[in-house]
Prior knowledge:
Elements: E1 4-5, E2 10-11, H1 17-20, H2 30-37, H3 45-48, H4 63-78, E3 83-84, E4 90-97, E5 100-110, H5 111-115, E6 119-120, H6 127-140, E7 142-143, E8 147-151, H7 155-164, E9 171-174, E10 180-186, H8 189-200, E11 205-209, H9 211-227, E12 239-246, E13 252-253, E14 255-259, H10 267-274, E15 278-284, E16 295-300, E17 303-309, H11 324-334, E18 348-352, H12 357-365, E19 371-374, H13 380-388, E20 399-400, E21 411-412
Helix pairs in contact: 4-6, 6-9
Amino acid sequence: xxxxxxxxxxxxxxxxxxxxxxxxxxxxxxxxxxxxxxxxxxxxxxxxxxxxxxxxxxxxxxxxxxxxxxxxxxxxxxxxxxxxxxxxxxxxxxxxxxxxxxxxxxxxxxxxxxxxxxxxxxxxxxxxxxxxxxxxxxxxxxxxxxxxxxxxxxxxxxxxxxxxxxxxxxxxxxxxxxxxxxxxxxxxxxxxxxxxxxxxxxxxxxxxxxxxxxxxxxxxxxxxxxxxxxxxxxxxxxxxxxxxxxxxxxxxxxxxxxxxxxxxxxxxxxxxxxxxxxxxxxxxxxxxxxxxxxxxxxxxxxxxxxxxxxxxxxxxxxxxxxxxxxxxxxxxxxxxxxxxxxxxxxxxxxxxxxxxxxxxxxxxxxxxxxxxxxxxxxxxxxxxxxxxxxxxxxxxxxxxxxxxxxxxxxxxxx
Length: 414
């Protein structure tokens, strides 16, 4: 059963929160972070992307860059831009985008739950990215940025969320990208106990986004436990910073593909080969969006096409075989275009659904790419089914939006 705990969050005073809060470290480049932080000494980018404090071109993994993260983290606390709460508590974090609001509970999630599989994953991680985040956590002795977890909707926790959302929030602002961010502190002893007990009845938590951060935070906690001769399991390093959303609150966006060439085929030859496994319908110049599971949209030579997978290309009874990302990877990218490894092949790129299908059209029309393929988004239930069966999602299958804002709450490991 899921083990969570309240904690003393380290966070900005109300008057500084909009200056401190930032996008996650991995959704923008060093140059973009430098531009966003320009003129703002309180921006969290100075801690999570500290290369911006050096000359452009400075490597983000250089020792002096990690050292700068520590220096800046200490500076933020010294100047009162980050202040630790006196009382252990939970927090409620709401995000509003395009008129839809999702509510997540901010908790200390158990490192042991991750190590023993009670926090389930659906993606593989890359060791070099884990090592980078592990080092960042170790040197700062804190989870600076949260991980994004989900759980099957729970009536008790829905009640806590609904009641808390009626109270006056601690933070309430709209970031420059138009996303609303609202946060409440939950410190009443009876409500804290209700949250802890409700999670204890939930068999598993699921990583929605942030697999590398989760793995890194868990491994740091594991190493600290091994190195501590007085370890007893109650230490803060046994927990990692997580925002846990009910499954029903989340919307997974499409994650689309653009490809540089047709593997030596003409447009006509390519479409003919696609037609062996898909029903191909020309849709014209107006953007066509996939209408349902197993329906895709293809953009090629100024025209949109509907592709509907034929019987035998999918298995709706299999958690992997049902996925459109699997169907398109096998029968279009691999068999026709010769793209086998989506992580390393430089002939393919990926476009998150937040950018819209117009981005696909623009990249093809510009000549940068030859064709684009849009997929119907997976569901949170599909992700849970895959995690429950011990399977791994194919690469580049999910895009969650909005992203968690970093800097609203930090979890110190001591």
